[in-house]
């Protein structure tokens, strides 16, 4: 009879799995430490707990995904514009507007699949097969077939197929960077660890999706599928909603305000006209024309094109934009929460400091002390080592040992020649209990007598067997306290410290472990995953731009502090908040700490999501960078997630909004600069379109009030909205960045799109355009000029072109900007002018638009009147520069 599936879980038992003795875990899971489960046990448990796979993301029906794209207020306003254009008998305009709506709906529909792709990438991390012991026999089974209680055999190169409590561990080391953020392989053990140990310190566990880098071991499966640490991340990723970009939020607010304004104006004007006794048909046409005039049909297209062009530019700068709003969002972020390993650092160990046992720094380049056997200290760095050199010169092996060999090669040591000259006779391998590795060598050419012993390991273990130590003054009796003070100081600086010791012996001793006695301490080696060369400047630029850079890592607090200080993220007195400390903080206390904490260490995936949410709750816009599986939920939950393209995992890339193709933190600076430029250009377009539409509104609103006939036909209004607004508006997206764009602080997260005088500008410029157009109309009617409507139409059109040339900067004059600095805009203005001339003078077009050819004098008069708008806006800039109108300063530009 198969045994029932145990109901005890680590949450329900007295201690978590990693804190329980191995035999207790086996007994709790009703397994056997030697024979494993029986086939009947496996079948019964699989029926109870299911397969060892990650749950699929919940999928919405396609029709609901499509309908969701049409719930935005701006989209509804555009659909209303299409309906109005159809009522007015303009099917071409209806088609154009609907095309814009459908394009935006298609883009939104495609973006809905991002979370599903992230879940698929998580599933790909599952090991395809696993070595297990069942019925007392070793066999290979699909990883999906594992159940709690199975005995799993682990070897170097394997992906851990489930969460496993280790029963044996022989020099077992596991790469957990993708899960915990730890930058180097973790040495595992079978003995239990403290119950409150964070994920990165649970040395008695091996977790699903991590990679065995060295050694071998055996363990009992304690969790499968969604119950694993990887499965918990999958659940977080599934439950975490994408944050809306600031652009999306501002445009949604803009759409709601605009819709209310349009409805209100139409009702007021229509009712007022009827009360004055105006004809019903005239007021109906006026109200509909006003509605069409108020709706910026080109706004979604301009924004889409602006973001698409920005995305293309970012690809050339090694940043792949997966969602178009991501570029603009980076220009708005106030916090960048960055993973350390592989993002701010190079994700490889490097020898950073070498010291004598008495603490004196050693210049490795001048390290000329020669050992009794004729071997140099720099050669000893590489000799006690299991690194393999490939034919192309690359090194394969443990990151720490690779760093030692690279340091030796940097100082002239040929690793292949060294290993041939000093072949290994014996080895005592590294184990977690011994915390050291020792090799024995004999010179191949016979020029040295006896054997050479080389040993490296943890200083506290090594000094027990050392009788002497090398110093700058020579060999002296070892001072254990002095050595440990030196080692502790190096560790406090964030270095991983190894002690390197040697001795010579006339013959190979028996027993072999006698070689580890009476050693001479050669040096203390400090290793570090070094910061990227360009990261420090990138951090400095972000800080000048008012962006707070925060390091969030799974590494040791001392290591995190050291890297943060080197990069300028934190100072010597700044706190490092650990995952355990975070767990003890409630939401209120955490909200108080996040605003002043810049370094977090030993954090879990839940901690990262919680930190991002805490910052967002305070109104901050948060960017999260990372490369591991553990980063995925926070990447998706942040306002913008930035993943690494080279060293990152598929899970992180699929969950992110943007991918850095060169894994270069400095690329984020380019993205921030591009985002700010794009937002400035979008503001330019909104300023342009609101002003021009306000001009049309004022014109239609004021004409009946002052006794003038309807000045514009519906087709004139649609022409200005779709052509006069559209072409120059698109060209504004090519405007260059303002000087000092990275010297100003981020926009306040709640800042309105209309801030810094935008709406005031739109009101008075629109009124000016209307007065100029109505003045032209009144003048022409006074002189009985039959072309009065064409002249009014032309003045309003050319005024808009004059305005677009003037608003290329909010503070700088056109003389400072240069007429040719944006060829696309200059070309758009010339093309629009040519199209307007075609409407006026081409018989076919004139018939459609009910226009009449103007005389040269009349056309030049229209040009001169329209130019007054340009002059007025340039005068406004003078007041802004010198008196700070609207709260705008030259710094904001």
Describe this structure in words.
This protein has 893 residues and is an alpha/beta fold. It is built from 34 helices and 25 strands. The strands form four sheets. It has an eight-stranded mixed beta sheet with strand order 8-25-24-23-9-20-22-21, sandwiched between helices. It is elongated. It starts with 21 loop residues before the first helix and ends in a 10-residue tail after the last helix. Mean pLDDT is 81; it is low at 1-12, 111-116, 118-127 and 889-893.
Sequence-ordered SSE layout with sheet pairings:
Layout: H1 22-28, H2 39-49, H3 62-68, H4 73-87, H5 91-111, H6 114-124, E1 129-134, E2 137-142, E3 151-155, E4 163-175, H7 177-180, E5 186-187, E6 205-206, E7 211-223, H8 229-239, H9 246-275, H10 280-294, H11 299-316, E8 319-321, H12 325-330, E9 335-339, H13 340-344, E10 350-355, H14 377-383, E11 388-389, E12 395-396, H15 399-410, H16 415-421, E13 424-428, E14 436-441, E15 451-457, H17 459-462, E16 466-471, E17 474-477, H18 480-492, E18 496-505, E19 519-528, H19 535-544, E20 548-552, H20 557-567, E21 576-578, H21 579-583, H22 587-594, E22 599-601, H23 605-617, E23 622-626, H24 632-637, E24 640-644, H25 650-655, E25 658-660, H26 666-705, H27 714-724, H28 726-732, H29 758-782, H30 788-806, H31 814-817, H32 823-841, H33 843-849, H34 856-883
Parallel strand pairs: 9-20, 9-23, 16-19, 20-22, 21-22, 23-24, 24-25
Antiparallel strand pairs: 1-2, 1-3, 3-7, 4-5, 4-6, 4-7, 8-25, 10-19, 11-12, 13-14, 14-15, 15-18, 16-17, 18-19
Helix pairs in contact: 4-5, 4-9, 6-8, 9-10, 10-26, 10-27, 11-26, 14-15, 19-26, 22-23, 26-29, 26-30, 27-28, 28-32, 29-30, 29-34, 30-32, 30-34, 32-33
